[in-house]
Amino acid sequence: MKKEILLKYNEITDFNNLSDLEKKLIKKAVESSKSAYAPYSKFNVGAALVLGNNQIIIGNNQENASFPAGICAERVALFSSNTNYPNEIIRQIAITATSKKFEISEPVGPCGICRQVLLEYEEKQGSDIKILLFDTKKIIKLAKAKDLLPFYFKEDRLKKL
Ligand SMILES: [Zn+2]
C-alpha cells in the first residue's frame, strides 16, 4: 500500500509579516552566525531560540580539525538552554546560515541529528517547538519539530529491549 506524508509549512517572502519576536530571533540567529567557529567549512550557522520565560539562547556551529568533534549551531543552542533552563519550554527556534565564500540562496534546514534532538525536547516538554528557517529572501515556518522528521526514533523503543 502506497502512502504519502503531507508536510505543511508557510513560506514568507515579506519579513514584515513576522511577529516582533520572530524578527528578534532572526536578528539574533544572524548575529550568532557571524561569530561561529567555522574555519574549515566557512559555512556559518546561527540559531536563536526563545524559552517559556522569554529568555533567548543563541548557538553557532563549532568546528574542529578533528571533524567529528564539531557541533551544529542548533545543538549548541538546545543543549545550552536545557543546561541553564531545564524546566523551561522551548517555544521557537530560528536557524540560518551565512558564508563569506558563497551565496546561500535557500533557507538551510537542520541536519538529521539536530532534528532528532529538537524532536526529543519537543516530546519531553509536551508542546510544539515552532521553527523558522530563513535566508535574506525567504522564510520557512514550520509548526513543530515533528514535521521535520517522520518515522523518528523514540525512546520508548529502548524500553522494549
Ligand atoms: Zn545539526
Q: How would you describe this structure to a colleague?
A:
The chain is an alpha+beta fold and 161 residues long. It has a single domain, classed as Cytidine Deaminase, domain 2, CATH 3.40.140.10. The chain is built from 3 helices and 6 strands; from the N terminus they run βαββαβαββ. It has helices at 20-34, 73-84, 112-125; strands at 10-12, 44-51, 56-60, 90-98, 130-134, 139-142. The chain has a 6-stranded mixed β-sheet with strand order 1-6-5-4-2-3, with helices on both faces. The mean pLDDT is 95. The structure holds zinc ion (ZN).
Would you spell out the secondary-structure blueprint of this structure?
Layout lengths: L9 E3 L7 H15 L9 E8 L4 E5 L12 H12 L5 E9 L13 H14 L4 E5 L4 E4 L19
Parallel strand pairs: 4-5
Antiparallel strand pairs: 1-6, 2-3, 2-4, 5-6
The site of zinc ion has 6 residues, from α3.
* Oligomer type: single chain
The percentage helix is 25-40%
Discrete helix count: 3
What is the name of the CATH superfamily? Answer: Cytidine Deaminase, domain 2
Determine and state the CATH class.
Alpha Beta
Shape: globular
What would the average pLDDT be, to the nearest integer?
95
Sketch the major β-sheet. Answer: 6 strands, mixed
Strand line-up across the major sheet: 1-6-5-4-2-3
Q: Tell me what portion of residues adopts beta-strand conformation.
A: 15-25%
**What is the C-alpha radius of gyration, as a whole number of Å?**
16 Å
List the helices and strands in order. EHEEHEHEE
Number of strands: 6
